[in-house]
């Protein structure tokens, strides 16, 4: 699936956490995934992980009420993800399109444009 996203404003990063009871049911998980896509969110990274109850409680206690926590949360789930690099390199490409969605990978990515520079 290819689309062109034209936005005068910079894209924002949003972390979506899907709880275990939804992930346990493939039909519910697919419905959640489709809801995210139908609301025109771009999925730029995806990861599955299994946490102990204690890890979850600690995570929510540390991140319950802070705007700054979004960067910490993204770093907790995607340690190799660089927000600065994403805003400098990937965000403009995703904002101006064209954008592909990979069903296998479950993420969006900038489509090659045929011009110079990275796609």
Describe the protein's architecture and organization.
The chain is mostly helical. Helices cover 42% and strands 8% of the residues. It contains 5 helices and 3 strands, in the order βαααααββ. It has helices at residues 20-23, 26-38, 53-62, 69-77, 83-96, and strands spanning 2-3, 99-102, 107-110. It has a 3-stranded antiparallel beta sheet. Strand 2 and strand 3 (107-110) form a beta hairpin. The longest helix is centred in the last third of the chain and has 14 residues, at 83-96. It is globular. The model has no long low-confidence stretch (mean pLDDT 80).
Assess the beta-strand content as a share of residues: 5-15%
- What structural category do the secondary elements indicate? mainly alpha
Largest sheet: 3 strands, antiparallel
Give the C-alpha Rg: 16 Å
Distance between the termini: 16 Å
Counted beta strands: 3
Number of helices: 5
- Helix proportion of residues, in percent? 40-55%
- Overall shape: it is globular
Low-confidence stretches: none
Strand order of the largest sheet: 1-2-3
Average pLDDT score: 80
Give the topology string: H per helix, E per strand.
Answer: EHHHHHEE
GO molecular function, one term: metal ion binding
Cofactor: Mg(2+)
Protein name: NME/NM23 nucleoside diphosphate kinase 6
Keywords: ATP-binding, Kinase, Magnesium, Metal-binding, Nucleotide metabolism, Nucleotide-binding, Transferase
């Amino acid at each position: 699936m290819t689309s062109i996203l034209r936005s005068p404003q910079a894209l924002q990063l949003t972390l979506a956490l899907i709880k275990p009871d939804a992930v346990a049911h493939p039909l519910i998980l697919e419905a959640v995934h489709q809801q995210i896509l139908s609301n025109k969110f771009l999925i730029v990274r995806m990861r599955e992980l299994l946490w102990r109850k204690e890890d979850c409680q600690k995570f929510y206690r540390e991140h319950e009420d802070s705007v700054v926590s979004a960067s910490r949360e993204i770093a907790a789930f995607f340690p190799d993800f660089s927000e600065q690099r994403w805003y400098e390199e990937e965000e403009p490409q995703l904002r101006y399109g064209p954008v592909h969605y990979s069903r296998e990978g479950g993420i969006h990515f900038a489509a090659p444009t045929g011009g110079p520079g990275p796609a």
